[in-house]
Amino acid sequence: MDYREFVGFVEDRSGLTHSVAKQAACLVLRRITSRINRGERRDIAALLPHPLGQCIPLGERIEKFDLDRFIRRVAEELHVDRATAGRTAAAVLAALFAVIGDEEFAQMRVQLPQDFKPLIEAAERAAPSSAEAAPSRV
Hints:
Blueprint lengths: L2 H12 L3 H16 L4 H10 L19 H12 L3 H28 L7 H10 L3 H4 L5
Helix pairs in contact: 1-2, 1-5, 2-4, 2-5, 3-5, 4-5, 5-6
């Protein structure tokens, strides 16, 4: 999945415009990875298509927040309601899952608080299949 496909997936699943979906992809990646350790952030950033890897805060300390605060911050920064923020976060994480794979995603998942479980499970269910995630060869 390249950058264009990643953003297109987020746009389709979130209902956001293309420009807001681009902003949302970077925002959600930055916020969710700020909750995990630096080594895992580097691993994820290295697997993401350009320019999404640059959204990962490599040098910052781990932030502590729960799912409610995460969704609230996404909603505030995107200027959307909480339902749209939740749907958008799940879409970004689903695309992330498709890009980084099950093992790397599991390593990220274990660093998140338990209350993130419904969001993570929704993302895993919504992740595009490997056929959908593979770049087209036309």
